[in-house]
Structures are given as C-alpha cells and as structure tokens.
Amino acid sequence: MLYLGADHGGFELKESIKKYLDEKGIDYVDCGTHTPESIDYALIAKKTCDEIVKSKDNMGILCCGTGIGISMAANKVNGIRAACCSDYFSAKYTRLHNNANVLCMGGRVVGAGLAIELVDVFLKTGFEGGRHQRRIDQLTDIENAQK
Ligand code: RB5
Asked: Which end of the chain has fewer CB atoms surrounding its CB within 10 Å, N or C?
C-alpha cells in the first residue's frame, strides 16, 4: 500500500498528488493532515511511517514546506529510507540504488507538475540490488546498533 502524509506546508501538494493517483487508479491511504491548519511535520511523519514499516511492500510519499523536516523525521523510524527529492534523476536513482521506500518533497519547492513526474518515476522504478543491497544492509546495521 502507498501511504501519504503532509504537514500544512505540504498539504496542497499532497492534495494534487492524490488527484493524480485517483486518475491513475492507484490506491493509497491518506494519513493526514486533512486541513491547511498548522501541524508539526514530525507527528505526521511518525504516524505515516509507523504504517509503512508494517510491510516491506509499503511505500510512502511525505510533503512539508521544504521536504527536509519531514524526511529527517521519517528517517528516524527504523526501516524507513526516505529521500527528499526535487529532481527526476534523484527520484529515480534513490529507488535503483537506495531502495528508498519514502519520497519526500517540498510544497514550497516543487510545483505539482514536477512532483507528479517524481512520484511517477519513484513508483515505477525498482531496486537494482547487487552491490547496493550490501549498502542497504549497512544502513540496517546502523539502526540495529542503536537498539
Ligand atoms: C513549516 O512552516 C515548515 O517549517 C515545514 O513545513 C518544513 O518546511 C520543515 O522542514
């Protein structure tokens, strides 16, 4: 399943992404926020990422003003590999090389048109594996060492 989340800075962008997903017939769960009122990005990141880590097949899209705060918060959750992207190459290669499971974007950084291109390539690109798996395992080792 695909999980979406945004603070007030990413709310409008999340709504645009939902419209695109609806048109494409892609299922998702909207973890909020559901209004443009101010809400702290860490709370939304935690709520959304707690759902994402329940299955290896889950993915997420998180938006805040810059995409940075919500990506920082997301990456605190064990099992999350969140990438803050504002260009096509990064959104593609973070899937190929980092096996990113969360795409983060800034509602005050990217327009809806670009964001949809990033979502599209992020969702359709698979992990390359091979030498990159070793590097992902090293990320997991860092998480495990903190437990
Ligand atoms: C909220 O004003 C803003 O700080 C937040 O959306 C985000 O940009 C933080 O990284």
From this structure: C
pTM (global) more than 0.90: yes
DSSP-derived 3-state class of residue 104: strand
pLDDT of residue 104: 99
Report the distance separating Cα 45 and Cα 135, nearest Å: 24
User: Is residue 78 a contact partner of residue 143, using CB atoms and an 8 Å limit?
Assistant: yes
Considering only CA atoms, which residue is closest to atom 10 of ligand 1?
69
pLDDT in tens, 18-74: 999 999 999 999 999 999 999 999 999 999 999 999 999 999 999 999 999 999 999
Q: Can you tell me which atom of ligand 1 is nearest the CA of 68?
A: 10
Domain count within the chain:
1
The CATH number of residue 113's host domain is: 3.40.1400.10
- Catalytic residue flag (residue 49): no
CA of 70 to the centre of ligand 1 (A): 8
Nearest CA to ligand 1 atom 4: 65
Active site residue 85: no
